[in-house]
What does this fold into?
Amino acid sequence: MASPKPPSSSFAIMSRTYLRPSAVTIDDSFLTETNTQKCKLSQKRKTLSSCQSSMGGHLSPWPTYTSGQTILHNRKPCSDEYWKRAGTWQQHPLGTTKPRYLEQLENYLRKELLLLDLSTDSAQELRLQPYREIFEFFIEDFKTYKPLLSSIKNAYEVMLAHQREKIRALEPLKAKLVTVNEDCNERILAMRAEERSEISMLKKEKMILLKLIDRKNEEKISLQSEVTKLRKNLAEEYLRYLTERDARKILIADLNELRYQREDMSLAQSPGIWGEDPVKLTLALKMTRQDLARTQMELNTMKANFGDVVPRRDFEMQEKTNKDLQEQLESLRDDYEEVRKEHEILLQLHMSTLKERDQFHSELQEIQRTSTPRPDWTKCEDVVAGGPDRWHMLAKGKNSDQLVDVLLEEIGEGLLREKDFFPGLGYEESIPSFLRFDGVVENKKPSKKDVVNLLKDAWKERLAEEQVRSHQPSGQKEKFPDFFFNFLERHFGPADAMAWAYTIFEYIKLFHSNEIMSQFYAILMEKRSESVYIKQKETVTQLLKEMTNVDSQNEGLLTMEQLSTVLKSTFPIKKEEKIQELMEAGGWHSNSSNADFLNYHSLFMEDEEGHSMPFVQKLWEQYMDEKDEYLQELKQELGLELHDEVTLPKVRETLMIIDPSLDKQTLNSYLSQAFQLPVTELPEESEEKEEDIVIQLQTVLERLQIVDIRRRGPREQEPTS
It folds into this structure.
């Protein structure tokens, strides 16, 4: 078979023109390396030139003329299979051998591969060099295809250079990453060790302080007992000293009397007294009589002056008795004054009670005249689903009005389950956004428990969004009705969202006695702000957190004293009777002892229908009562009737009077809700005018009733020390 014809000159010219060396962009290092390799290749080509000249100036058309010849495979140069094939090639007859130029190239490639050291890190780069040289030989020998082959080689070389640069740039980053990782691990281990040591030190310090407190308490008890004993000893010593002082005075008086008697006897027994001169005796008698008269006068004076004087001991005893009696008199006077005031209050209360009794008596007579007999609620036992047991559970602790609501809920639930479809309410503006639909929607007929669980999930998602929005204040808050409909779309899909919206709306509109349903309905219909529910949940969470902090042993138990302390610290402005009501709702009574314990986790549990424990219910009742009292106090301070108009400055001033602890941000939020103005558009106190904003007091109170409004502190600020 003839050798292939060389390509036409026009194709060669076009190839050279299209694949010029300037069409490929190569960096300086790559050009330098390429020039060096070309010099080496030019030297190596001399070794192959003599063999190539013997081929007659043209290439052999092998393997087109032979079918038994195989092509050289990419195998390892030093393997056994390689040497077997090499021996086989040498045994072929001359008529079927490869072209000599091909054999020379293969032999050259094998030699170069054998000379390489493949154990180094750059083994792949070295292994690629012989193949690069062989490819250069092909480029130089095939003149026609040289531009195309050169462009192919240059493209691969550029890519290899780019990859080498990229690897070289990533090597320091890899080392830095390893160093940073090790550094971070060491810092984490150091911080953990430091925390463990600090925790152990704090625990030891806690134990030391507890022991110190016990020791101080023991010392206090011993000192108190010692003080009591010393007081008793002091009283005994005082009495003994008084007795000794009186005995000493009596003894001195007796000694003086005995001395006077002895002197008189010595004068009477003197032998020379009768032998004295009469004149001298007369003079002595005269002087004695004068002394006697003077003494008698002094004695009379002393009797006149000190005849009514008592001994000092009796005087001190009487003075002490008088002081005690005076204190008793003052105490009795105070008691009498209190009893007198109580008597006056009781008289007033008695008079008001008499008036109320007369009024109630007249009302009772009117009711007896016009009212119907009291209903027999036991008749409902056989009508309500579940029988007497369920009716007793529903009716426990409820009055007649509440029992009517329960009965209506049971009847309404039965009617709801009988309905298969709800009629759409249309697209009017008065219809809530989540109920705007024209047509018929399906009644999904869920159970009461399913509705409660669905509402709990909606609140969890809403609270999560509220936390995210608190960290990103710039985000726009979604309205609660829109959020509710989007929540149903996410859970049930756009096709069933409207049906679930109508179904849940009918359920929460019916069940007024259920806390979660009634609150959700009020917020959904914008009769109450969702901030009320969120603040109530935050209060309950904070209260549970405070109880957990007090429970140092983490046993889930609190004493009555601990519970009272937590309630007073969490609600500092609540009155004592309110705190007592919360404790009684939690299970404590006045006859309970401090040694009893309370499982505080049970105070915050809910049943399957969402009903809270009495403790949380009492918290909610007190909040609503306090809100009503707050708004009533605002109305009384304003001194206006409900139909009277009030200005924004007047409401601002009154709020600061009844609640001086209000901060500016909270005050502005109240005013914004009351007058339906954005906070940014509220006028400052210096810019307010009496005639600017006027609105009815009833409207102000109704708008404030919707939001979370509560007292921030006592009405009269206590003076700071």
Summary: The beta strands are 421-423, 440-442, 557-558, 598-599, 645-647, 694-696.
